[in-house]
């Protein structure tokens, strides 16, 4: 109760409750008149063709993967930035080595053409 | 205040559920997700001990575990993709080329 | 009963339920969404344990990035063949896991852990204290993490990039 983040929990709970409540009310109260044309996927008025569940290209996956790795890099940068003044030169060298090693990976990815889309 | 034991028992239960997933499921993606669940159970133990021993080291270890988990997910899923390209299956039982 | 204990019970029931859904649901996408819920609940537990920074990172890295990656792979592979179900395996696996949970719980709750937590100082768990510990006590693991990430980058590109 006296936890500093307790209001945040109340906010999340209320947000979830409101969303679920509105969905429930819309489901129960809203009038429904289904017909097959309404259920069709919208393709600018043309009759839909093919399956909606096509396979994604592997390029999306590569981008997501590289995003995850560099996201982790930022995870370490954030606490470092908070403490930057206290750490001084030591912190700068420390983070320099860290980023230098990851820069090798970045250059590799770039040279290998994993960031190209074609 | 919640006693430390509660957190430890909860974490043991979550870990065991993850073990069920690894042992029983026959879909590589779900097996990887169960491993993530097990890592998180261990993270919970670290954070609980960090709080109850008033030491920051547990929290730092959890950040490293997150880095390892992300690297594991990236490499594991890349292996899943390349296995799927060659064998057209996600069933770990089918991958027995190295089995003696 | 204390309010935080009630909150703990609510969260742990939800957490066990969502973890069971990860393991037992048939549809892989549903498993992934249940895992997102489980990770979010664990983040709430982290914040309750005075680790707000780790809790936020949990949501950002795990529930955000890692789960997006999992969903990408599920969409990419689009597995349509349903998984064969073996009764014997489920029984064996569940029995082994129950045994493990029982022994782990007995082992973990047996220790000399303090019943009353050490009174945490005002700044305990704040990003500053976390950063101080991370960049002074854990310098070497921090640098080695960069090598780990480098290996992950190279491995991912080698494994997943289709040769032209």
Summarize this structure as a short list of keywords or feature phrases.
heterotrimer; A: 118 residues; mainly alpha; Methane Monooxygenase Hydroxylase, Chain G, domain 1; 0% strand; C: 164 residues; Four Helix Bundle (Hemerythrin (Met), subunit A); 2 domains; 6 helices; globular
Low-confidence stretches of chain C: none
Straight-line N-to-C gap of chain C: 64 Å
Q: What proportion of the residues of chain B is helical, as a percent range?
A: over 70%
SSE string of chain B, helices as H and strands as E = HHH
The whole-angstrom Rg of chain B is 17 Å
CATH topology value of the largest domain in chain C: Four Helix Bundle (Hemerythrin (Met), subunit A)
Task: Provide a compact summary of the structure.
The complex is a heterotrimer of chains A (118), B (100) and C (164). With 118 residues, chain A is mostly helical.
Describe the structure.
The complex is a heterotrimer of chains A (118), B (100) and C (164). Helices cover 69% and strands 0% of the residues of chain A. Chain A is mainly α and 118 residues long. Chain A has a single domain, classed as NADH:ubiquinone/plastoquinone oxidoreductase, chain 3 (Methane Monooxygenase Hydroxylase, Chain G, domain 1). In chain A, α3 (58-82) packs antiparallel against α4 (84-112). The longest helix of chain A has 29 residues, at 84-112. Chain A is flat, with a radius of gyration of 25 Å. The mean pLDDT of chain A is 85. By secondary structure, chain B is mainly α. Chain B has one domain: Orthogonal Bundle (Helix Hairpins). Chain B contains three helices and no strands. In chain B, α2 runs antiparallel to α3 (57-87). The longest helix of chain B has 31 residues, at 57-87. Chain B is elongated. Helix content of chain C is 76%, strand content 0%. Chain C contains six helices and no strands. Classes of the chains: A mainly alpha (118), B mainly alpha (100), C mainly alpha (164). At the B-C interface, α1, α2 and α3 of B face α1, α2, α3, α4 and α5 of C.
């Amino acid at each position: 109760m006296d936890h500093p983040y307790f209001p945040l929990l109340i906010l999340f709970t209320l947000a979830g409750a409101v969303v679920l409540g509105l969905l429930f009310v819309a489901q129960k109260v809203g009038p429904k008149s289904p017909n097959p044309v309404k259920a069709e996927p919208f393709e600018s008025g043309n009759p839909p063709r093919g399956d909606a569940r096509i396979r994604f290209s592997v390029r999306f996956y590569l981008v997501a993967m590289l995003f995850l790795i560099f996201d982790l890099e930022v995870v370490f940068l954030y606490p470092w930035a908070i403490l930057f003044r206290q750490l001084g030169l030591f912190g700068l060298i420390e983070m320099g080595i860290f980023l230098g090693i990851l820069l090798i990976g970045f250059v590799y990815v770039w040279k290998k053409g994993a960031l190209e889309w074609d | 205040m919640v006693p430390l034991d509660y957190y430890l028992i909860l974490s043991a239960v979550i870990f065991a559920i993850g073990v069920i997933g690894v042992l029983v499921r026959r879909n590589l993606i779900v097996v990887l997700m169960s491993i993530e669940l097990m890592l998180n159970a261990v993270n919970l133990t670290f954070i609980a001990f960090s709080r109850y021993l008033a030491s920051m080291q547990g929290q730092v270890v959890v950040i490293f575990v997150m880095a390892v988990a992300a690297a594991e997910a990236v490499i594991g899923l890349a292996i899943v993709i390349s296995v799927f390209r060659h064998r057209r299956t996600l069933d770990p039982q089918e991958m027995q080329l190295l089995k003696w | 009963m204390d309010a935080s204990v009630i909150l703990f019970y609510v969260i742990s029931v939800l957490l066990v339920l969502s973890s069971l859904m990860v393991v037992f649901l048939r549809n892989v996408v549903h498993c992934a969404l249940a895992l997102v819920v489980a990770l979010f609940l664990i983040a709430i537990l982290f914040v309750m344990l005075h680790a707000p920074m780790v809790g936020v990172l949990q949501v950002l890295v795990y529930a955000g990035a890692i789960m997006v990656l999992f969903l990408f792979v599920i969409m990419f592979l689009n597995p349509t063949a349903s998984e064969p179900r073996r009764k014997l395996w489920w029984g064996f696996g569940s029995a082994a896991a129950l045994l493990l949970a029982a022994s782990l719980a007995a082992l973990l709750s047996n220790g000399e852990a303090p019943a009353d937590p050490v009174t945490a100082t005002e700044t305990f768990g704040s990003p500053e204290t976390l950063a101080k510990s991370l960049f002074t006590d854990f310098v070497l693991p921090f640098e080695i993490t960069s090598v780990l990430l480098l290996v992950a980058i190279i491995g991912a590109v080698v494994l997943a990039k289709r040769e032209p």
